[in-house]
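step: validate -> pass
step: tokenize input -> pass
step: predict -> running
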Amino acid sequence: MDASQVERSKSYGKIVVAWHKDKGLIVSRLQRFDGTELLMPDSRDYEPVSLSAEVNWRILGKVLWWIGLAA
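step: predict -> pass
step: emit ->
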């Protein structure tokens, strides 16, 4: 993870690590649709998280590389 890359506008479409005080850590793709920022999981088993509605999420950094199977 690159913790120096926390600016949201430069991370759209990238996999990021985000943190919420009550919900913990999440690894998801940061997307922006019509002014709404979403953490979109690659797995269909999980729901997207709206960052615009829930302002307590903080981007900790961008994931530099990922090894895994596509869902």
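step: describe -> The chain has one domain: 8-62.
step: cleanup -> pass
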